Amino acid sequence: MAMIKGTRIALLGLGLISGSLAKALKATSWRGSIVAWGPREPSLKRGLSLGVIDEYTLDLEAALDGADIVVVGAPPAATASVLNAVFVALRKNGQTPVVTDLASIKGHIVAQAPTDYPGFVPGHPIAGSEHSGVSAARSELFAGREVILTPLATTDESATSEVANLWRMTGARVTEMAVDAHDAALAASSHSPHMIAYALTMALSKDGLAPIEHGGGALRDMTRIAASDPVMWRDVALTNRDALLAAMAAVDGELNQLRELISTGSGEELERYFAHCREVRRGYDRILNPMLEPREPAS
Amino acid sequence: MAMIKGTRIALLGLGLISGSLAKALKATSWRGSIVAWGPREPSLKRGLSLGVIDEYTLDLEAALDGADIVVVGAPPAATASVLNAVFVALRKNGQTPVVTDLASIKGHIVAQAPTDYPGFVPGHPIAGSEHSGVSAARSELFAGREVILTPLATTDESATSEVANLWRMTGARVTEMAVDAHDAALAASSHSPHMIAYALTMALSKDGLAPIEHGGGALRDMTRIAASDPVMWRDVALTNRDALLAAMAAVDGELNQLRELISTGSGEELERYFAHCREVRRGYDRILNPMLEPREPAS
After folding, report:
1. With an 8 Å Cβ cutoff, is B114 touching chain A?
2. What is the pLDDT of residue B293?
3. pLDDT of residue A299
4. What percent of chain B is predicted at pLDDT more than 70?
C-alpha cells in the first residue's frame, strides 16, 4: 500500500474535503498526527470532538510548525490568499514542508504561487457533496475517485510523489495534468454542470405550476448540486471564467440544437441523438460510479 | 391499507414500470392474477420466469378476457395506439374493465381516447430509472413517489378510485391534476431536465479533452438520465412539444443570465443566485428524496 513519509499533517481550513481526507487517513495504518487551523473555532472544535483531527490552533504559524505536509482547504479565492500567507510564514521560519491545495480551479491558484518553492504541488480531488462542513466528512469520499495533480516546472518530484501517496492512501487514483488542461476539462465536466443545475433550479422556482413538487428521481439528481456552497461556486465561476463560459456555450449550442429538432418534429434525429447519448453515458459508467464497479472474480 | 376490488390485472406491455407495479402488488396481501401481453415474447418469458407475472399471451383479446384492470405500459406514441386497440376489443366483447396507462404525457393520449368509456383513468407514476426492461423492475420503485391521475369529465369516480387504490398499494401517493396542467408541470420537472442531460452529455462527448473521464458525483448525477430509453424520450419530446419548448426556453433564459453574470464578474449577484437555489433545493428535499424522509418518532 502507498504510504507517506510525513508524520505530521496541517490542514488549513477544516471542511467536507479536508475532514474526509483526515478521516480517510485515520482509517489506514498511518499513525501520525493531524493539526487543523481555520478562521472559525466552532468548526475546529467540532472536528476535534468528532475525532477527525488530533488538535487545532487559531495561529497559522503554530499550525505550520513541524508540519511535514500542509493541505490548504478553502474556497478558491481564499485558497490563493492562504497559500500566500503560508509561503511567507515558511520563508520566515525556514521550514520546507510539502504544500498542496484542494481547489477545483488551478490556474488562478498557480498564478499567485511563488516560483521558488519546490515543495508546492497543486491538487484537486474530484469528489464532493452538496453538503459542506466537517460534520459531513466521510472516510470513503475518495474511494475510486480521481485526484488530479498539476505539478509546476519548479515542483520537486519527491513532493509530487508524497502528495500522490497521500491521496492513494484514501483509495483515490492519482493522475497528472497541465494546469490549463485541468481547468478546461473541469469547466466542462464539473463547473458547467453546476451552472446548469443552478439554472434549472432557478427556472423551476419561478414556475407558477410549482413543478418541483412533481419531481422524481430525475429531478432529484439534476438539481442535487444546486444545494452546493454558494461562496465556493461563486469563486469557481469567477476564477475559471473563460473556460467555464466556453463549456456553457457548448451545452447551450446542444440545447438549441435539441430545441430545433423538437420544434421541427424531427423524430429520427432525436432518437439518434438520444441513443448516442445513452451509449456515451453507459461507456463512462465505471468512471462515474466507481463504487458500483463489479469486482473481478477471484481466479 | 388501500385494496383494489379487481382480482385479475392485464399488463399490456411488460417493462420497467409495469413490471415494478406487478412486483409491488405481489409484495402485498393481494392474491389476484397478473397476465401480460406484449409485442416481444422474450420480455414476457423473462417476466414469467422472474415470477413478475403469472401468465402471458401474444393475443390482445385473450389478455383482456376477464380482466378487471387493464394497465397500458408502452412508449407514449405506442400507448395511444394500444389504447385504441383496447377500446375496440372491449366494445366488441362487451367487457368494461377499468383501463389506465403509464405514459409521461397525457394530452396526446387523452386526445385519442374515446369519450364514451367511463372506465378510462389516465395515469402517470413519477418514477423510473435509466434502466429499462422487466429485468430492472423493483417492487419498491414507487415507495413515497407521486402518481398523478388525470381523470376526464367522462371518467367514473369508482374507476378513478380503483386506480388510485392500485397505486396506493405500491406505497405511492396519489394526486389528481388536469391534463394540461400535468403536461406543463411535467415538461418543466421531468421532460426538460432529460433534454438538458442529453445536451450536456452530447457537448461533453464532442469535447477533445474527454472531460467525462474526469467526472465525479456531480457529473454522474447530471448525466444519469441521458442513458434513458431513446424511443420513449423521442415520443415525449414530440408529443409534449409546446410545453417542453417553453420549459427549455425558461432554463435557457436562466443559463444566459448566469453567463452574463459570470462574464461581467458579478460576484455578489452570483452568490445570491446560488444561495437562492440552495434554499429552494433544500426546501424540496423531502419530496425529491422520499426514501430519506425521517420517520416521525412514535409518540
Report:
1. no
2. 43
3. 32
4. 97
Which residues of chain A neighbour B262 with C-beta distances below 8 Å?
195, 237-238, 241, 244-245, 248
Between CA B244 and CA B247 the distance in angstroms is 5
Residues 256-285 of B with CB under 8 A from A: 256-259, 261-263, 265, 267, 270-278, 280-282, 284-285
Please name every residue paired with B11 in a beta bridge, in sequence order, or none if there are none.
B36, B71
Query: How close A15 comes to chain B (CA, Å)?
Result: 18
Q: Which residues of chain B are under the pLDDT cut of 70?
A: 291-299
d(CA A262, CA B242): 9
Nearest to A244 among B192, B220, B262 (CB): B262
Q: What is the pLDDT of residue A291?
A: 61
CA separation for the pair B162, B155 (Å, rounded): 12
The ipTM, to two decimals, is 0.87
Judge contact between A57 and A37, C-beta under 8 A: yes
Grid cell for residue A245: 463560459
Question: A278-295: string of b/e by CB count within 10 Å (b at 16+)?
Answer: bebbeebbebbebeeeee
Together in a domain, A186 and A157: no
> Which residues of chain A have a pLDDT value below 70?
291-299
Rounded to whole angstroms, the Cα distance separating B163 from B165 reads 5
- What is the residue range of B200's domain? 182-287
Query: Is residue A296 included in any domain, yes or no?
Result: no
Nearest CA in chain A to B209: A185
Q: What per-residue confidence (pLDDT) applies to B88?
A: 95
Question: Of the residues A139, A156, A177, which one is the last residue of a structural domain?
Answer: A177
Grid look-up 425521517 returns B294
A 119-178 residues with CB < 8 A to B = 126-130, 145-146, 148
Is residue B209, in this structure, part of any structural domain at all? yes
Adjacency order of strands within the sheet including A146-149: A123-125, A146-149, A173-176
Give the A:B interface size as CB pairs under 8 Å. 329
Contacts of A212 in chain B (CB under 8 A): 189, 280, 284, 287-288
Task: Say if residue A173 is in the same domain as residue A192.
Answer: no
Q: Which tens digit of pLDDT belongs to each residue from A179-219?
A: 999 999 999 999 999 999 999 999 999 999 999 999 988 99
CATH code, domain carrying B266: 1.10.3660.10
Q: What gap in Å lies between CA B292 and CA B286, rounded to an integer?
A: 7
Q: Are residues B158 and B50 part of one domain? A: yes
Nearest CA in chain A to B224: A281
* Mutation to test the B interface, candidates A16, A108, A194, A223, most B Cβ within 10 Å: A223
pLDDT in tens, A152-178: 999 999 999 999 999 999 999 999 999
Shared domain check, B195 and B111: no
Q: What is the pLDDT, as a whole number, of residue B289?
A: 83
Cross-chain Cβ contact B126/A250 below 8 Å: no
Q: Tell me the CA distances in angstroms from B107 to A229, A261, A264, B101, B113, one per residue in order.
A: 40, 21, 19, 12, 10
